[in-house]
Amino acid sequence: MDGQLIAIKRSKQGSMQGGLEFKTEIELLSRVHHKNLVGLVGFCFEKGERMLVYEFISNGTLSESLYGIKGVQLDWSSRLKIALDSARGLAYLHDHANPPIIHRDVKSTNILLDAKMTAKVADFGLSLLVSDSEEGELCTNVKGTLVGLHFCMALQSMLIISILSFKALVMQGYLDPEYYMTQQLTAKSDVYSFGVVLLELIVAKPPIYEKKYIVREVKTALDMEDSMYCGLKDVMDPVLLKLGGLQGFPRFLKMALQCVEEVGPDRPSMNNIVREIEMIMQDHGITPGSVSTSSSFSVDSTAKKFVPRFPYSNTSTSSTTFEMDSRAFEYSGGFPSQGSLQNNRNT
């Protein structure tokens, strides 16, 4: 396309996404324009083909950079900038898109990094369209087996959400526990998932690793009397410990933990998160640092006893069964392949 690199998202044959849902995705994507959202370039919808064409994001996913797959080391200032970029993209969806949009699938594999390491939020095409009067609530069934898209009426508006991501959110550790229990999806559900991503920026491990849950591990190790590491030295990414320069770390951690409060009203809004990260960077004179080309690595922490909260327990996540196939789409270009995502989960 005029020499522009692109990434194509192609619907697989037999996908459960129907024509109406695909058209809704196109309409939604064409409405939103923000530098921290992956931009839609074009689409194809004919002769059984359904393809979305996006701008190419050259540095892949945040998870690939954090877990060492991309061979980079992110310093603290770079991670703050990534957090700020991502928060701005989500805040735009929540408060400035018309109608407001709940992403419903916030995770580190849906945050992409361009050539300048600017973060862009991806995969919000089948998100929840929100009526202003309903404050982003959606009633939907939370069950072991979910089929396709669930529709429900909330007073005067029909709210649409893809349940295809439900399996991934549960299995990967991003699911808002309040949503799991109440079946009400709100913007604060995105905030919870984003809080998990913020903890990933600190720990550089998947939310669920070795049958441990990142939120539980951080809360267990927490010691605010430790002014430098807040008790997290044994669970933090060794790259951060090596590079140092953790200005504003206690404030950042406090904000991240507020995001993963179990009750939605106790969590900040995305706009408040944006302002807090901006203040942290401003107060400490932090600017995005250079990115090292060395490989990142991590060490395992020793889990302390903790009474688990539903739905994330000490039992293996494989005990939960789902019949949905989350591989509804194949990706090319700047999007990670399904195989790479599966490898990430297994590392």
From TrEMBL:
Catalytic activity: L-seryl-[protein] + ATP = O-phospho-L-seryl-[protein] + ADP + H(+); L-threonyl-[protein] + ATP = O-phospho-L-threonyl-[protein] + ADP + H(+)
Any GO MF annotation of the entry: ATP binding
Keyword Kinase appears in the UniProt entry: yes
Pfam families per UniProt: Pkinase
Keyword Transferase: yes
Every Protein kinase domain range: 1-280
Keywords attached to this entry: ATP-binding, Kinase, Nucleotide-binding, Serine/threonine-protein kinase, Transferase
Enzyme Commission number(s) of this protein: 2.7.11.1
PANTHER family referenced in this protein's UniProt entry, alphabetically: OS01G0750732 PROTEIN (PTHR47989), OS05G0423500 PROTEIN (PTHR47989:SF62)
Record's protein name: non-specific serine/threonine protein kinase
